[in-house]
Amino acid sequence: MYASSTKSTGPPGRMKKDESLLGKLGGTLVRKKKAKEVSDLQEEGKNAINAPLLPSSADLLPEELLLDESAEKTMLDPTSRENPKFKELQKVLIDWINNELEEERIIVKDLEEDLYDGQVLQKLFEKLSGRKLNVAEVTQSEIGQKQKLQTVLEAVNDLLRPQGWTIEWGVDLIHCKNLVAIVYLLVALAMHFLAPIRLPEHVSVQVVVVKKREGILQTSHVTKELTTTTEYTHCTFAERDAFDTLLDHAPDKLNVVKTSLITFVNKHLNKLNLEVTELESQFADGVYLVLLMGLLEDYFVPLYNFYLTPESFEQKVHNVAFAFELMQDGGLKKPKARPEDVVNLNLKSTLRVLYNLFTNYKSAE
């Protein structure tokens, strides 16, 4: 019986060794579990204390909370991100950019992801202003991207600051994909260059401002007004006239006006065997405007004074600006429109220029 009993129970030394090992492992696991529970409990308590200081609606990422003492960070409140009017504003701006940069084969789908590196902003500013910026075409490094942004934003600020614009954007804000700063910048450019778009009115968003004071994060909400009304174009003070009202409220009558203007210009351009069917596109390079002024004032315009077959944006702007000079030489007031607006196919600007000619030369033969 003794031998049988010994066989069934196994070697006593092996059993004690296994029990000792399992006991140690079990004890270690239990201690680790308890330590984790304590750590989780402490973290939960810390979060509970700081919860009133953090925006409950904001999805704050860890890196966004690593602030130095007295540092400050802003971010868009998620509720504003879902605001239908804010979404509509973004769509209008995206469509406008894609239309402007169609020849560059650039397609923007997301303002934050597609504009932060400065590439699209560079192309957009060059197209709108007719200026070529001295920057590298493609930059992959963060330093290179920020250098490009610096050059682009300096050019933008030099243009907008004298007009009274408050600069609500910066290199770091754009590069860290701050959507509010990006939209502010695009709205300013669209309004300054009289983009042929209609921005949604009274678009405001809530921005969460996070500050660190004595090691504690403090938050507040600030309202940012991105657009007011289309009638008020910030500090450019673009005067609304009959064409604004016509386009906004009586588009059906617009065709009547366009037909009258086409009849007027063709009455004179037909003398050179030229004919206009599309006002906004056929006057965009300035050639017909220059020739029309020569016909209306009854003189020949030397061909060396303008580009008969302009190819670049700068050549087209030169032609339209030269036509404006001829208008002023003829006793007309300086056109309210800018040459760049006509070249950019801005219908209202083209209509204003042609209507001014019509009212002054409608009896000319």
Automatic annotation (TrEMBL):
One GO MF term: actin binding
GO cellular component: actin cytoskeleton; focal adhesion; lamellipodium; Z disc
A biological-process GO annotation: substrate adhesion-dependent cell spreading
Compartments (UniProt record): Cytoplasm, Cytoskeleton; Cytoplasm, Myofibril, Sarcomere, Z line
InterPro entries in UniProt: CH_dom, CH_dom_sf, Parvin
Primary location class: cytoplasm
CDD domains: CH_PARVA_B_rpt2, CH_PARVB_rpt1
Region Disordered, residue ranges: 1-25
Keyword Cell membrane: no
The keyword Repeat appears for this protein: yes
Keywords from the named record: Actin-binding, Cell adhesion, Cytoplasm, Cytoskeleton, Repeat
Calponin-homology (CH) domain location: 87-194, 255-362
Entry similarity comment: Belongs to the parvin family.
PANTHER family linked: BETA-PARVIN, PARVIN
Protein name: Calponin-homology (CH) domain-containing protein
